[in-house]
Amino acid sequence: MPIKKSELYSSLWKSCDELRGGMDASQYKDYVLVLLFVKYVSDRYAGKSDALIEVPEGGGFKDMVALKGKPEIGDGINKIIAKLAEANDLKGVIDVADFNDSDKLGKGKDMQDRLSNLVGIFNNPELDFSKNRAEGDDILGDAYEYLMRHFATESGKSKGQFYTPPEVSRIMAKVIGISSAKRQDQTVYDPTCGSGSLLLKAADETEHGITIYGQEIDVATRGLAKMNMILHNNPTADIRRENTISRPLFIAEGALKTFDFAVANPPFSYKAWSNGIDPSNDEYGRFEGFGIPPTKNGDYAFLLHLIKSLKSTGKGAIILPHGVLFRGGAEAEIRQNIIKRGYIKGIIGLPPNLFYGTGIPACIIVLDKENAESRKGIFMIDASKGYIKDGNKNRLRAQDIHKIVDAFNKQTEVPKYARMVPVSEISDEDNNFNLNIPRYIDSQEEEDLQDIEAHLKGDIPNRDIDGLSAYWNVCPSLKNTLFTPSGRAGYSILKVERSKIKAAIFENPEFVCYSKKTDETFKEWQNAILPTLDNIKIGSKPKQLISLITESLLTAFSKDELIDKYDVYQHLMDYWSETMQDDIYLIAVSGWKVEINILRNKKGKEAGWDCDLIPKNLVVNEYFPKNHEAIDNLTAEAKKTAQQMQMLEEENSGEDDLFSEARSDSGTISRGKIMKRVREIMFNSEFADELRILQQYLNLSDKEAEINGKMKAMKSDLDKKLLAKYKDLKQDEIKALVVEDKWLKFLYASVKSEIEGICQKLATRIRELAERYAEPLPKLTKEVDERSRNVDRQLRNMGHEW
Predict the structure, then answer these.
(1) What is the rounded distance in angstroms from the CA atom of residue 697 to the CA atom of residue 678?
(2) What is the CATH code for 1-155?
(3) Helix, strand and coil percent figures for the chain, each rounded to 5
(4) pLDDT digit string (tens) for 344-396?
(5) What one-character DSSP code corresponds to residue 374?
(6) Which among 308, 303, 240 is positioned nearest to 268, based on CA atoms?
(7) Angle at the Cα of 443 (from 437 to 447), degrees rounded to 5?
(8) CB distance 92 to 86 below 8 Å
(9) Three-point CA angle 529, 531, 532, nearest 5°
(10) CA distance 673 to 654
(11) Whose CA is closest to 230, among 150, 144, 128, 170?
């Protein structure tokens, strides 16, 4: 059965649990990722003569499995990895971690058990990577990325430098226009490549592939990048180790090699950037004509290196702290010279706390040398407010990424978000080449002003009502349904009770019409996309499919007056991550067929069955609704009976607890003890009331047992019918269940939730305004005076005088 991404991720994280305690995440990543690498290349290439990676005798994952439970397992794993490294020129790449380190892995039996368990997790038959790759879907690369994110999160400050969040990488890859690359021999370069995620995201945007170059200063991190390249099917990527500023390794005829595209996320404000060079006499001329960066801040050193590394038509993007946009001194001079040459195509301001090594806000500077001399403006985006909290970090959502990329690539001006800023404005006397985004884009939300006169005299200011014009444009009559002019100019009165505002909105004919129009928009999109979904087959490319589906959804909702198309897009992307990608991946590998999973308990015994692609409830609702209804009725009856028993118990507990004789030490009532008590008092009239209550309880208990017995039999019968139906499902039935009943019904419900959200948001704002001005100050003052007089009167009556 094909690997589900969610299950793969879970298995990999289990392996991390085996290593916790002796080391932190910045160290145990070296062990987990090496095992992942060895398992992957062994499954993919072992025994193949023409393989990109040679798995030598005694140098594969099966050799590690043979060491399970043996005292020498640590040393043995080291030797296996050494053989694999030797055969593939991977020394210093995959052999960095010592699997025989007792300080990190424990001594004796502790190490033996820990490593045996670790190998056992990767030895799961379901993790067979030789058979589990749908074309175009990089499941191993995604798993690597998943682990890297978690390692960076757990490593904490200063240890996450090897990793650029994939969301940021994706933006950079899309805004440099690398998708226009037509040939494999075109190049992309990262001078501070870390684990290689930026390079891979850029390469992933190309249709025909691209030649990858990267340089990284850290030995272990360069090893991560090399493994990452192989896991992502880019084994020929040229990743070198050295300090990029003092010793760049990509040289052509004594000058820096130049590239078609470049991306970088260098260390922020690196203090030791000039170690090993004389910046005033740089042999590669990187600072010539621009200026020398400050001695203790290397941000512009990396930027100028990137510019120098681009061809005359080259395009690139670099992540830098916001300070580069406005700091003075030497940096101001460099910034002015870069702007004058027209190299900066755009600047994207990102939210704070996205990166693992720092919490400060950063920006993406987009470079484009092509036609730079004629560039008249810089396109700026303030994306600082589009994110969600994710643990102790912020994270860009799919909708935030898409909104940024759409605005930038289409050069679309959006109020309070994006605009083309003329160089003439940037260079004028007021701005003096300062690129600080708030100078050019005011992204602040308008202040919710309080109206003093309304607080004094009551009623709702028309200014606030007019602020909801987006709703009145769609539903003109709704405004008159909710408000009527007051006796004062510029103010209105709420016509409906506050508790009925939401109902008034929902029932408004124009809002009903708008809701129906949204339904029609969804149905039109659904009808258009159905053939695409029905035609998914073995070999389909999941990532291309989701791109096609989402773009069509964005187009469908682009003209909706109230729903933000990016919110609808986010619903689809969330569902994709949670469910749909696993479904489509299964179909792309195995086709439209039902695969039954046998569930097992902790002891390994069968404990039922399920199906990943088609949950049981879908088949029950479609083919066995009466059985489901009958079970639901019995469930309701059982619940009612249980409640009656509980009420009987509660009514007869306390000081005279009639159930005291029947309670166990844990407080639960024993049926056997009740029956024993009944026999004891059956013929004693003194206990007639107790006997009646206990018998009533027993009758209810009998009824509950009878209902539960019927339910168990019905469920067992339904389960047998279900299993038989699953085995008999035809392909058309499977498609209908998955596409229409599972995917599209969920997405339709998500769109309906947006309508509900619109109504709720409007109702909340109106209620807020109504409550804000409901009690004018004179009225409040009068009430205070009256209550004060009442208190005085009460005090005098009690004999107290003020």
Answers:
(1) 11
(2) 1.20.1260.30
(3) 55, 10, 35
(4) 999 999 999 888 767 788 999 999 999 999 999 999 999 999 999 988 889 99
(5) G
(6) 303
(7) 140
(8) no
(9) 65
(10) 19
(11) 144
